[in-house]
Hints:
alpha/beta, Rossmann fold, 2 domains, six-stranded parallel β-sheet, four-stranded parallel β-sheet, 11 helices, 17% strand, globular
Amino acid sequence: MTRLRGAEVLFFEPPASGKSKDYKKPGRKMRPGLTVYTLPSVLEVDEKHTRLFAMSQRRLARFILDKLSRHRFRESVLWTTSPGQVHLLDLLPCKGVIYDCDRAWSAFPLEWESDLALSADVIFAASPGLIDRLSPCNDNLALLPGGVNYPMFSRDGLPTPPELRGVRAPVLGWAGTIHRDTDLTPALQAVRDLPDCAFVFVGAVDEKNPLFPLLREFPNVAFTGFKPLVDLPDYLGRFDVCLDFLRRRDVGSDIIPCRIYEYLSTGKPIVSMLYEDQVEEFPDVIYGAHTPQEYAQLCQRALSEAGDWARRRRRDYGEAAAWSGRADEVCRILGSIGLY
Length: 340
């Protein structure tokens, strides 16, 4: 949204906690044309409690309407990202509705997403599978995969982060959140099979992941914890091989995580775990494994990769996924239906 030239964007983020008072703070001017507000906390009640549920939605709507008025919005376009926002549509006057769908939602009733999809003037879906899922509700769908800040992640000669300066071994690294259901079996196999390599996991970790306690006991494994997005290129710049794992909830999904585009932009070798019968994305430049044993073997092969062809090809894929290009496509589509 922030790359739509000439547009003024108000971004409403959820509160950090139920007791947060951040909604009372003034909006944060992040850059020209982008102001961020924190929504007030509301009661999380089931829709069957009609009055309480409606009160919560009206509170959110009043807050948003107040900010729209302060910014003198007359014809706003609502950019929605979650089925939970469908209840605001009748409370917020607008010129049009966009549904930006980046996942197969399971935490909300199916009727909510159906109603949102039916109300949308256009749906941006992150994968062909999501298009198939939403097509019964709307004919105006466009494929809009995730993207990457290509100039930021494609830079060379970046400084080595302090905690990695003493590492002399080849570094195989992951960048992203490790969830409770992230399958780290391939990582455990690779760590055991490649004891002379360093394995670095950059990002927050759910310590309830069953293999996390085992992995952190290895002397060649390091967990850095959460790092801001702006710092990630420095860590990826020290990686010799980039690692990708599966979440059990994502088995069968065809959504490409933005992490893959970040990896591609570096040009570095990538080893990814595949689920059974998965159609490989970028098979010419990503090493895809179907078993933990094969994963460890491909890590070794990736470390030995020679020549520049694959590196250049990866960067071409990364550049093709740049947010600037994605924004141009969004502008074209919104312009064609009179919303931009």
